[in-house]
Amino acid sequence: MAEEGKADAQLFNLLSNLLQQVEALTNQEEVELRSKIEALGLEVTKVPSKSTQLNELEIARELDKLSAKLDDVDDMISTTIAADPQVQSLLSGTADVWLPVITATADERQNFTGSIEDNNSEAKEKSSG
Length: 129
Description:
The protein is an all-alpha fold and 129 residues long. The chain has helices at 2-26, 31-45, 56-83, 85-103, 106-128. It has one domain. It is 85% helix and 0% strand.
């Protein structure tokens, strides 16, 4: 479970970094997109209290809310990409980093996080050895 949280944190750090790069390229602050990414990050990492039991309808409503937020973010990204070729170039150039994380299942993201940690420890061993 902690590994899944780490993968989520990495994804939202990446999104935040990409947004900073987009803002730097366009010289425009994307306040609305930043707030939506932050809100989504908080929503994803929120741990429900033990006493809260959600029934299927409540879960479906919450999933619908999250889907709507993701749709909003997707619309904003699509609009920005269409308006600025530099943003499109930036996202295309980094797609190999962020696309697998976004499209992965929870289990795949956990394995993805493990492989990153493995690569980091191998790199450290090579640089110290």
